[in-house]
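Course exercise 7: structure representation. Students receive a sequence record and must write out the corresponding structure in token form. The form below is the worked example handed out in class, using Alpha-1,4 glucan phosphorylase (820 residues). Read each field label carefully; the graders check that inputs and outputs are placed in the correct fields and that the protein name is recorded exactly as given.

STUDENT ID: A-19
EXERCISE PROTEIN: Alpha-1,4 glucan phosphorylase
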Amino acid sequence: MTQSISKTDLPLPSPRVSDPQALAAEIIERLTYSIGKDAKVAQPHDWLTATIYVVRDRIIDKWMESTRATYAANAKRVYYLSLEFLIGRLMRDAMSNLGLMEEIREALTSLGVDLAVIAGLEPDAALGNGGLGRLAACFMESMATVNIPAYGYGIRYVHGLFRQQMADGWQVELPETWLAHGNPWEFERRESAYEIGFGGGVETLTGSNEEVRHVWKPSERVIAAAYDTPIVGWRGERINTLRLWSAQPIDPILLDAFNAGDHIGALRESNKAESLTRVLYPADATPAGQELRLRQEYFFCSASLQDILRRHLQQGNTLTDLPEKVAIQLNDTHPAVSVAELMRLLTDIHGVDFDTAWEITKGTFSYTNHTLLPEALESWPVPLFERLLPRHMQLVYAINAKCLVEARKQKNFSDREIAAISLIDESGERRVRMGNLAFMGSHSINGVSALHTELMKETVFADLHKLYPDRINNKTNGITPRRWLLQCNPKLTSLLREAIGDGFMDDAETLKSLDGFAGDSAFRDKFAAVKRANKEALSNLVASRMGIRLDPSAMFDIQIKRIHEYKRQLLNIIETVALYDQIRSHPERDWVPRVKLFAGKAAPSYHNAKLIIKLINDVARVINNDPSVRGLLKVVFVPNYNVSLAEVMVPAADLSEQISTAGMEASGTGNMKFALNGALTIGTLDGANVEMRDHVGEENIIIFGMTAEQVGKVRAEGHNPRAIIEASRELSQALSAIASGVFSPDDRSRFSGLIDGLYNHDWFMVAADFDAYAKAHRDTDQLWTDKAAWNSKAILNTARMGWFSSDRTIRQYTADIWRA
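STUDENT ANSWER:
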């Protein structure tokens, strides 16, 4: 009789060998037995999938080892809740962090396959939009790198935001089909599935000991199913997990209805459930759109919290020690409903009394704020919130009562201050304030740059800061140097290794030792050659995608980010029009050849942002086809901005545009990526630009325009943009050309409303900062002509950006907030 083996004594699989010969054999084996293809007829996408499987096998070894170690130590875990994770392509990231890049390349070469070709076929994961999602991705990689046991929680979007195409210069939104052929990186976890409810009502029950219980009876339920993706830390020392939720119906098809001939109605519940995880940020201009967004947010928050509590209790912990074993970080207000949901789970499901549950909740949650725009702090109409989440509405009122009474009794708050901190905004339509809920329900609230954090205390959370003065703290954002230097800029990485050794690969702050090379003419030449090669790569991409030829010897002036009025792509393109006028009017001057490159997506319902994209494309069409410019100026809007496109554009930039209205950009991380790769920044003293100036030196960054304090003063005292415009010849001529239809002959009034807005209110200070911005550009031209000075400054930017590693940021979160 065979003796059974205890699960704890089960043998572990042998770690995979990673020499090129073994890797080549495994790739063939995967191609044959996992994909079912003979190598003789395999297509590039087959080779890609087979290679991913082979890399994935080596990740799994480390992944399981990391999980076992965390369970054995019963270590505190960090849970990062974010509606976005803009992780991009994963194969190069994984190979690089595991130290397998050259071995895989050699293995594939022996099989007649080009790694670069198949790597370019991997789709970008459509799980985010911009900086918020990319920050979450950098943080996940850094948490693994600095050995923090962590889970990321989000939504497994089928289509993500959208795929951007241009039709006659207008943005067109198409579905992003990144999951069309499956995702070889993910693992479905059938055992991790949870019911999520909506609607219905709440019953109050009284037990035999007079204990009151509240029972929520939802009228709708869906299933949240888990899909796990491993996130590899540097050198593969730890592998963490990104768990994404997919919505599934409880009854996928109503057979009675289907057999009765109602084929569409039979799938109604299935379609309703699946709509939850189809699209990132569904337009919320309609009541239906608002409801879908709130459903999405509650869906992923509830599933994540149920999963967190299950894992916590499964290890023999108690609910009262939740804050000692669990740290949950809310990335912006999107997961703020988690505060009410954790209270519901603790009180209604696990029987914890309200006051104890509130202390547990505050001890567990921390909240990162990313905006000073009041309209960007989410709020929901009370009727919608109450109809969709009736028990949570009760808990919001209960939390509000507790905190408002505390404010009145302990701090003697006035009626105005009470109204400001209340979870219910009663200034118009009654709305639930999610930013206030996140603040009240967290023990730590952090800003993402020094300036942003101080402004947060003075503006959006001034009264809550007065009530809880010890909660707000700063954690300046960072980027992972693995993705944004080692992987996206291998030529620069090789040059740095040759000059200063490999230490910066493990500790980005050792890049400081590059300082001494800024005055070395031979090194400057090598640095410039790397930049030239990267510009040629971008030029080839633009030529192949758009048929536009670029001169790599020109200055590449790049602005890539979400299209929004406060980020001021409009200021950039207006200055471009003014420069166009000057080049034509003064051909005798020595103009610096310049390529203005833009990329970014506008929210589908954001009219002015989409109009700015159209303006950029209209201006590009005129300038690029005008022989009088003599090739001195080109304008290009590159469609469908994503991580993979950024990985080509960032290393190619000479000049990085970080020109948001001062006081409105929380941090920015694109500014860090560009500077790390040797671009000079032209920008305002906004967000992390302030700290970047302090680190790289004010002589190595080009700062212009009003400060946040000056912007606030101008707005308070009254802004007269018309007078400013009329006093600036270049600005008034550029605006007149745009408004009169010079760039839109098919519709001469197309941009008149956009320009009228600048004359009449100019909230984003485009007119107010124009002259300073134009002068800064002409100063930049002057600097460009001194190539030795330019390259020295570029080298110093790279050398002094190590502090902006997300490893440093995560270590600060760990020490000050999570205590993991």
